[in-house]
Specification:
Blueprint lengths: L1 H10 L53 H12 L6 H9 L4 H6 L18 E7 L2 E7 L3 E10 L2 E11 L4
Antiparallel strand pairs: 1-2, 2-3, 3-4
Helix pairs in contact: 2-3
């Protein structure tokens, strides 16, 4: 095993060449007058070099959050659809990475078959976030929304089965 590691180390790009030791082991650039680093246009730690590149969109209107939660819940409860049709339905209301995570869901295993009421506010739409609980025929679907790119999108969801008596 040691021989394999030695052989691999000798085959690595730049093997046999010495790498100069860094002058400063700090992960942050050295501060200079004006807040930047010596010879660099990099912002100080905590800055974002790209914050000026993206135009800031206005926050979505609070009254637009409820329909997004309702639309997502109605699409989520369609366990009778094919997997492809179900995913298209839920993804229409979702943030991209959450929509990708729903690709693993088998809609035939979704316990609800229909929404039975309107979304109930648990965290009013403010500061770019909102949470709603949506009643279904099998329990309560909690839907988290975020104001992204000027519109409300679902970023997470959780289901709690109704307690049978």
């Amino acid at each position: 095993m040691a021989l394999v590691m030695l052989v691999m180390a000798g085959c690595a790009p730049g093997a046999g060449r010495e790498t100069p030791a860094p002058v400063d082991s700090s992960p942050y650039p050295a501060a200079v007058a004006g807040g930047g680093s010596a010879g660099s246009s990099v912002e100080p730690p905590g800055g974002d070099d790209h914050d000026h590149d993206v135009p800031s969109l206005p926050a979505p209107a609070a009254d637009r959050a409820v329909p997004v939660a309702a639309t997502f819940a109605a699409a989520w409860a369609r366990s009778d659809l094919s997997a492809a049709a179900w995913r298209r339905g839920v993804a229409a209301s979702c943030e991209e990475s959450f929509a990708r995570s729903l690709r693993t869901v088998d809609p035939s295993r979704v316990p609800a078959t229909r929404v039975t009421g309107r979304p109930v506010v648990k965290h009013a739409p403010q500061d770019g976030t909102a949470v709603f609980e949506v009643p279904t025929d099998a329990g309560t679907l909690t839907v988290w929304l975020a104001g992204l790119n000027g519109r409300w999108l679902v970023v997470d969801a959780d289901f709690r089965r109704a307690v049978s008596r």
